[in-house]
């Protein structure tokens, strides 16, 4: 880096831009937003454990009970940061629902406390990519959108029709009865009133939503409240909160909506409270009881020394559940040199990237000196970030480079030490925590809500220590706010209006028109207590997009946010005289931290407090081309064999080793070094499945799997006449198709990928959103977007929303890259409505990047060949050009795709399309299999390619669709084993590398026989087969076709022609000659 470049970086470092990048504290109000600076290999053991607990939820045979995960560590070890990572991992991957609560409480009924915090957690946006879709709405959608349970007609009526109260009640009761009648066994433990309450959320009426929230919190309800919810019986008995928590868990399990995670953070805050031992025991009793439900995970985080003081008051049986199911994890607070370098570099990358300055070096930490991580090694994350923050502040004031840290903090005044907690602030945090968890009546009328919002924003001025002033004036039913900064300049002119009317009959449109008309040149902000309508085909979605295009903003204030505003009014009047109140208010910022308030005030220009502080305490779906592959339409099989012989058991008396076909629904892995015979074993199994009319897909990286398309491979001598006859039978039974994605036009058989597959729009809203976001992430990686950069992350969100909307608008069509570019470039009103605001620079740069990608990688997206389709790969699409009754063997050779990034992107789209197929084609029998050779490239342990998340997701989804995945690798040490519980059958050949053996040891230790020390001495074809902890030593049979390297030129030739049946060729020649 030359001197001119250094000056450029230093100038930006010494500016006030992104002052928050080195903020050292994770507050509880940040839990709901992903951390752009998260370093995944910090606390890796904890993350792996949590991910494994999540993965097991989809495996019925492992669901004996829930689990309790105990995390212990010192202050500053990063416990709350880890909770944030857990929450966002769960929700971004749509694996469940995360309830977070801090134990800064003196309540005695912990079930009630846990329930109210859970409902508040679920009332937050489900994920950043889902915008204003709350967790409760996500759960309600998952309930009503289950395939072939509730008719599309009834869903449409409930969401869109103008219904009077009696019609609404009748429809909700009808849908609830439909759900129970069609899935009675699955829902036998689910509370009927809970189903009805969640169904009422589908009706876009703020008053109804408010009553549902009161019911779910087990608060008192008036007779009128109950009438609005169909005369529902309120839950006001002491043990009702406990029962409702259990009912929520059972409902999530019944609708396959994942895990119910309850996180108790900062458990140590019970310790100073009166009767701490009794309260601790009660809290643990409630949590261990709840954790008996199979899909519940309880995460407990506590200071290690405080936990040791409290644990003595628990019975041994309870301690065993808490500490050994799984084992307690001790968080290491001391960071090493590599971790520190990453902590600093990822933040500086964001600072520089946000100003279009490339750091040009991996993990560059300039202007910090290179020795800095070495000298900071051994300190906690909080201390490191606080030191960096102080050094940046020093650089801002002096314009000089940061200093080197001293070797001993006692000799260095700028090196922070851990600060003790302040009892007075802790007491206020506890009082506030308990206070807002009590019942608070939210106003019903729009005018009352506007006045409440005015008071809340005025209060935010106090939280900012009056560095910003808010000037208010009212016009009609609107509120004007001028925001003045510390220098006296007016930074923003806002006009706020409540827009609570329903969209039916144009009522909401008229409110939006009125607000925009009265705002004139001010920023118009539409406030709503429920989600703004976002159905792309609805006129109101286009009108809201036009509103956004003209500079308007949409802000949804959830019920939990309104309740906090109400609570703060009375809490402030009660405690404002306390001398420590203002300090607590400035540090805690209880209202300024609300997502809705941040959206209104645009907090990115409001700096965070730089003062070092302690860790906070406080009709039915029908798609003719999307029929599931059932035994009737999948294949005609002459054999009823359900077991495959794949080799011989080794031992004193060798005998055939057979395996049930059904096992492969739960996936298989083949591990072994080069020459172990792992691929041959996998092909042996696939050949037998093909003989049973089960189609297969082979993902061919090297070219050897294309041997199945060569006539010579089928004519090589076989001495065993029985095997020769079986090979002849296989040859007659299958249809081999070689695809060459990326090949230029006129060569091979290209297989092109759409941006989104046909049929994506027919999936449930949750599935469509997840697949759209995964596609957007893959595209973002191709575009070079780093998720640590906020602008790039926003562009990925725009991509995801655009893909989702277009797939919903044209569900019968595949989405091309040109359509995507045109849609984003037009700044379509429906897209703007989904995004929430217009940011021209983001749209312009995104369109430019997509155009460059389309031009530079045209072979990836060309529409001249066949389009990728799982149905076609399995040989069951209506446009199958061969029109045969043979079983399909599809071989996809990736050598023409070019570099590794292209290959990974293409494979990620294949995995996403298979995920789409799995969602709409459920089956409890094996429909097809796919072999991924060199699987460590797609599911590596140490990196996160675009294939990783789709493959992890498909391992879960594919089981319910009868699609078996086969992962083979000659580098077992490089494979990520966090998803190992999704794979039921393991075949492990010769493995000698220490890294691989170390990786396999935890998994092998779970088997009844530990064979780790025997793996290295196995010869070719020898494997240990592991299934349900049983271990068998086998000698595998060879495959009927021997895979050998096929040249690139021959692969193109094989792909461009159809295999000719000799008998068909004879008759064709006969007719031609006559």
Automatic annotation (TrEMBL):
Transmembrane stretches, start-end: none
Protein's name in the database: DNA helicase HerA, contains HAS-barrel and ATPase domains
Record's keyword annotation contains GTP-binding: no
Annotated GO MF terms: helicase activity
Pfam families: AAA_16 (PF13191), DUF87 (PF01935)
PROSITE patterns: SIGMA54_INTERACT_1
Region (Disordered): 616-641
Species, as recorded: Nitrosomonas communis
Stored Gene3D superfamilies: P-loop containing nucleotide triphosphate hydrolases
Residues covered by the AAA+ ATPase domain: 65-320, 664-1066
Entry keyword Transmembrane: no
Keywords: ATP-binding, Helicase, Hydrolase, Nucleotide-binding
InterPro entries according to UniProt: AAA+_ATPase (IPR003593), AAA_16 (IPR041664), HerA_central (IPR002789), P-loop_NTPase (IPR027417), Sigma_54_int_dom_ATP-bd_1 (IPR025662), T4SS_component (IPR051162)
């Amino acid at each position: 880096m030359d001197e001119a470049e250094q000056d450029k970086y230093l100038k930006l470092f010494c500016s006030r831009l992104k002052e928050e990048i080195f903020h050292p504290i994770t507050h509880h109000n940040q839990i709901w937003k992903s951390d752009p600076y998260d370093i995944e290999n910090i606390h890796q053991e904890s993350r792996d454990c949590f991910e494994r607990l999540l993965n097991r939820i989809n495996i019925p045979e492992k669901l004996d009970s829930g689990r309790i995960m105990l995390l212990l560590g010192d202050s500053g070890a990063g416990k709350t940061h880890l909770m944030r990572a857990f929450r966002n991992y769960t929700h971004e991957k749509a694996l469940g629902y995360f309830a977070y609560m801090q134990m800064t409480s003196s309540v005695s009924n912990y079930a009630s406390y846990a329930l109210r915090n859970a409902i508040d957690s679920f009332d937050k946006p489900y994920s950043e990519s889902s915008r204003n879709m709350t967790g409760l709405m996500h759960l309600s959608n998952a309930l009503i959108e289950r395939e072939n349970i509730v008719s599309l007609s009834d869903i449409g009526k409930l969401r869109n029709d103008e219904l009077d109260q009696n019609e609404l009640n009748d429809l909700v009761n009808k849908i609830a009865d439909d759900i129970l009648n069609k899935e009675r066994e699955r829902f036998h433990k689910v509370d009927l009133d809970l189903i009805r309450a969640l169904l009422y959320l589908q009706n876009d009426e703020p008053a109804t939503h408010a009553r549902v929230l009161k019911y779910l919190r087990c608060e008192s309800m008036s007779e009128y409240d109950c009438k609005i919810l169909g005369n529902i019986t309120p839950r006001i008995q002491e043990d009702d909160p406990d029962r409702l928590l259990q009912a929520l868990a059972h409902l999530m399990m019944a609708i396959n909506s994942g895990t119910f995670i309850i996180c108790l953070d900062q458990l140590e805050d019970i310790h100073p409270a009166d009767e701490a031992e009794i309260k601790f025991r009660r809290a643990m009793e409630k949590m261990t009881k709840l954790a008996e439900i199979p899909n519940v995970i309880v995460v407990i985080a506590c200071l290690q020394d405080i936990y040791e003081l409290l644990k003595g008051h628990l019975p041994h049986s309870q301690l065993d559940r808490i500490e050994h199911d799984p084992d307690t994890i001790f968080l290491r607070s001391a960071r090493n040199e590599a971790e520190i370098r990453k902590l600093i570099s990822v933040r500086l990358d964001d600072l520089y990237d946000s100003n279009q300055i490339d750091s040009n070096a991996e993990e560059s930490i300039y202007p910090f000196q290179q020795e800095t991580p070495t000298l900071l090694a051994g300190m906690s994350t909080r201390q490191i970030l606080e030191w960096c923050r102080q050094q940046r502040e020093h650089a801002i004031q002096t314009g000089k480079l940061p200093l080197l840290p001293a070797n001993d903090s006692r000799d260095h005044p700028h090196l922070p030490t851990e600060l003790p907690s302040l009892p007075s602030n802790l007491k206020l945090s506890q009082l506030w925590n308990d206070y807002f968890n009590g019942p608070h009546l939210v106003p019903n009328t729009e005018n009352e809500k506007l006045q409440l919002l005015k008071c809340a924003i005025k209060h935010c001025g106090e939280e900012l220590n009056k560095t910003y002033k808010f000037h208010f004036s009212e016009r009609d039913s609107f509120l004007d706010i001028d925001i003045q900064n510390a220098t006296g300049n007016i930074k923003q002119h806002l006009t706020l209006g409540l827009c609570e009317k329903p969209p039916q009959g144009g009522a909401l449109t008229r409110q939006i028109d009125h607000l925009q008309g009265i705002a004139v040149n001010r920023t118009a902000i539409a406030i709503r207590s429920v989600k703004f309508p976002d159905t792309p085909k609805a006129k109101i979605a286009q009108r809201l997009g036009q509103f956004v295009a003209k500079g308007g903003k949409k802000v949804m204030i959830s019920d939990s946010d309104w309740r906090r505003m109400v609570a703060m009014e009375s809490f402030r009047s009660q405690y404002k005289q306390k001398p420590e109140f203002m300090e607590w208010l400035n540090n805690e910022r209880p209202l300024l931290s609300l997502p809705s308030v941040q959206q209104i005030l645009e907090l990115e220009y409001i700096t965070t407090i730089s003062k070092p502080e302690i860790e906070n305490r406080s009709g039915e779906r029908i798609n003719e081309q999307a029929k599931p592959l059932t035994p009737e339409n999948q294949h005609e099989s002459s054999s009823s064999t359900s077991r495959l012989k794949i080799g011989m058991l080794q031992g004193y008396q060798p005998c055939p080793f057979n395996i049930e076909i059904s096992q492969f629904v739960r996936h298989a892995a083949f591990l072994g070094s080069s020459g172990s015979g792992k691929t041959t074993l996998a092909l042996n199994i696939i050949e037998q499945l093909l003989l049973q009319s089960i189609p297969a897909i082979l993902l061919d990286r090297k070219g050897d799997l294309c041997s199945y398309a060569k006539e010579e491979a089928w004519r090589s001598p076989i001495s065993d006449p029985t095997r020769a006859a079986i090979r002849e039978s296989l040859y007659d039974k299958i249809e081999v198709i070689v695809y060459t994605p990326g090949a230029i036009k006129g060569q091979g058989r290209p297989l092109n990928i759409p941006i989104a597959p046909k049929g994506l729009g027919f999936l449930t809203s949750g599935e469509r959103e997840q697949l759209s976001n995964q596609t957007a992430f893959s595209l973002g990686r191709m575009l070079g977007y780093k998720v640590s950069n906020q602008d790039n992350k926003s562009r990925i969100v725009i991509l995801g929303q655009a893909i989702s909307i277009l797939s919903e608008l044209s569900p019968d069509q595949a989405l091309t890259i040109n359509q995507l570019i045109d849609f984003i470039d037009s700044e379509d009103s429906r897209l703007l409505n989904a995004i929430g605001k217009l940011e021209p620079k983001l749209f312009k740069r995104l369109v430019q990047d997509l155009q460059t990608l389309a031009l530079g990688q045209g072979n990836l997206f060309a529409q001249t060949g066949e389009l990728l389709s799982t149905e076609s790969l399995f040989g069951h699409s209506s446009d199958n050009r061969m029109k045969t009754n043979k079983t399909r063997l599809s071989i996809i050779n990736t050598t023409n795709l070019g570099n590794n990034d292209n290959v990974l992107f293409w494979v990620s789209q294949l995995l996403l399309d298979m995920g789409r197929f799995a969602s709409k084609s459920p089956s409890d029998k094996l429909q097809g299999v796919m072999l991924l050779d060199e699987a460590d490239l797609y599911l590596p342990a140490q990196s996160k390619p675009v294939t990783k998340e789709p493959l992890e997701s498909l391992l879960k989804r594919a089981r319910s669709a009868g699609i078996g995945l086969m992962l083979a690798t000659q580098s077992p040490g490089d494979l990520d084993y966090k998803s190992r519980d999704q794979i039921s059958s393991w075949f492990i050949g010769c493995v000698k590398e220490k890294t691989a053996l170390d990786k396999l040891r935890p998994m092998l230790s779970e088997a009844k026989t530990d064979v780790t020390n025997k793996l290295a001495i196995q010869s070719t074809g020898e494997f240990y087969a592991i299934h349900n902890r049983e271990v068998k030593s086998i000698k595998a049979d060879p495959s009927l076709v021997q895979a050998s390297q096929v040249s690139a030129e021959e692969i193109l030739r094989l792909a461009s022609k159809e295999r000719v049946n000799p008998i068909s060729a004879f008759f064709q020649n006969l007719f031609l000659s006559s």
